[in-house]
Amino acid sequence: MLRLFRTHQVRREEELTEQLWEMRIPRENGEDVRMRVLLPGCVQNIPGFENYRGRASFETEFTARGGRIRIVCKGVSHTAQVYVDGQEIGGHYNAYTPFALQAGRLTPGIHRLRIDADNGWSDRSALHVPNDYESYLGVTRPVAVEETGDVLIEYLHLIPGKRDGSWFVDAETVIRNLGEDPFRGSVTLSMGENHRKEIHLAGEETLTVRWPGLAVPGAQEWNPEDPRLTMASAEVYDADGRPVDDLIERFGLRQVEVRGGEILLNGRPVRIRGFCRHEDDPQFGCAMPVSAMARDLALIRDLGGNSVRAVHYPNDERFLDLCDETGMLVWEENHARGLSEEQMRNPCFEPQAEECIREMIREHCNHPCVYIWGILNECAGDTEYGRECYARQLELVRSLDASRPRSFASCQWMKERCFDLADVVAFNMYPRWYIDRPVRDYLEELYAWIRKAGGEGKPFLITETGAGALYGFRSPRHEKWSEEYQREALEEQLTAVLGFEGCSGVYIWQFADCRVCGEWFAVRPRTMNNKGVVDEYRRPKLACETVRRILKGE
Ligand code: ADA
Predict the structure, then answer these.
(1) Pairing between strand 143-148 and 12-15?
(2) What average pLDDT does this structure show over 289-300?
(3) For ligand 1, is residue 230 a contact (CB within 6 Å)?
(4) Which of 111, 166, 272, 502 is a good FRET partner for 134, with 20 to 30 A between their CA atoms?
(5) Does 544 contact ligand 1 (Cβ within 6 A)?
(6) Is the CB of 464 within 6 Å of ligand 1?
(7) Is any ligand 1 atom within 6 A of the Cβ of residue 378?
(8) Dihedrals φ, ψ of 463, to 5°?
(9) To the nearest 10°, the Cα dihedral for 159, 404, 339, 523?
(10) Which is it for the CA torsion 95, 97, 102, 103, positive or negative?
């Protein structure tokens, strides 16, 4: 399933995943492993390959009807090279963002698509590094083949706003002419009413068409309690009025503002009772099917959660579709966790981190559930060089989407230098876990310092707090790693944060136990991050009842 709604009526689009592909894993002795595997999927879920790091190729067939072929990959982990009939058509780095590649006009008939994926570590990979979550190998999100004429719509962005009590939308469509001949025709935007503009593109030109301040007839507000979605579609017609391409999008009329130390959603203060969530599941790795995503969301809702922090990378857009539909607020961030200054000085870091921001905002800015953009979780915001990176990336976010606040989750106790650059200040804290200190005390000292360190007057979020517990480890000693200890630590942490004046809310670290890279074995029993309130199979730990009671205010 590509999305939770249909995105084309005119453009021919066919999903190539949810079926078997031929996989080949190269072996040094020349005896390559070949088998048929269902995609999307992770190689680490295939018996015998649980710890595999390296390369794999995936091949399938598709039928062309004579138009231009576009291959859309929603996610390949983590580096991809794509070939059609043996010819390379392009590549992509980063598991967590979609990309589309042009394969040109193909003769009608059957053609072969091959995707080479690599999850190895190297200097060329600045974001995927050994870390506190796994970098899997595979075609981990859907793949589609699309067929178009020369002219196609690249994207349609819809940014809502409110003026004098009425909703409006700033819409933008990017149209590309891939052919050499000029194109004359029109583009329409339908959203209750039809808007139409004449367009003229020279050969190989890309054109941005803007519709600022469009009124929305029959406007229905999107709210977490009543998440009403609005459909919009762009269509391109040739000079004879024949449709040549279309793109259907979905968005929500809601406004996020930062005012008086609060985050306001449609004018009302946001109170976050959230969970950090990795895309990780023992059965599927990061290639989670929609049903497993929906199960996670139902569990989070049942625990009293109203928000998910998508750690530490852009999420599958079908997860965001579900959040749009169920009114779950999402903090989404670019892909970077815990990078030191030395890692940030890798020449690949800036281009890769910035590309991830561009792709995340380009692909996800229509989702009303995303109320904030984050960057660089726990990176080197305590150094001069780190500050330059934070400043550049926060500026880039604003240039791409000024309608949402920007933030980053810091852990630089008494050392952070970047709070003044963000719209919302956020801190990851572990008193009662890494630091043996009463939570209230810790929080008071933290907030007093944050205000002096550039956070005065800004909304304040705790973006992580929690403690580890090994599922099934019950103990009368209530020592660390026992379910009893986790329950008591979370009770103190959540009570302190939710009762703390000036704090807009909390994200529990974390929703479910997740797999971590082998390099982290020494600090992570089972080579898992065990701070989930449910284990990796989503079985509840003792903490669940307490968390539910506190988050639901019972
Ligand atoms: C950090 C980090 C998380 C996770 C957590 C932990 O705050 O942002 O990714 O590693 O700590 O479990 O220690």
Answers:
(1) antiparallel
(2) 98
(3) no
(4) 272
(5) no
(6) yes
(7) yes
(8) -95, -10
(9) -110
(10) positive
Asked if residue 513 has its Cβ within 6 Å of ligand 1, the reply is no
Q: Is the CB of 49 under 6 A from ligand 1?
A: no
Helix (H) or strand (E) holding 506: strand 503-508
Average pLDDT over residues 117-123: 98
User: What is the length of the chain?
Assistant: 554
Q: What pairs with residue 269 in β-bridges?
A: 264
pLDDT digits (tens, 9 = 90+) for 497-535: 999 999 999 999 999 999 999 999 999 999 999 999 999
Question: What is the CA(194)–ligand 1 centre distance, in A?
Answer: 48
Residue to substitute in 375, 428, 446, 528 for testing ligand 1 pocket (most ligand atoms within 8 angstroms of CB): 428
Q: Give the mutation target among 378, 465, 510, 514 for probing the ligand 1 site: most ligand atoms within 8 A of CB.
A: 378
Q: Is residue 172 scored above 90 in pLDDT?
A: yes
Ligand 1, residue 531: give the atom nearest the CA.
12
Say if CB 124 and CB 348 are below 8 A apart.
Answer: yes
Buried b (16+ CB within 10 A) or exposed e, 130-164: ebbbbbbbbbbbbbbbbbbbbbbbebbbbbbebee
Q: How large is the C-alpha radius of gyration of the chain?
A: 24
SS3 content of the chain, % helix, strand, coil (to 5): 20, 40, 40
Tens digits of residue pLDDT in 324-342: 999 999 999 999 999 999 9
> Mean pLDDT in the chain?
97
Rounded Cα distance between 309 and 407, Å, is 12
Report the alpha-carbon distance of residue 548 to residue 554 in Å, rounded.
8
Say if ligand 1 is within 6 A of residue 524 CB: no
Contact yes or no for 288/514 (Cβ under 8 A):
no
Token pair, residue 235, equals 């269509």
**What is the DSSP secondary structure assignment for residue 180, as one 8-state letter?**
S
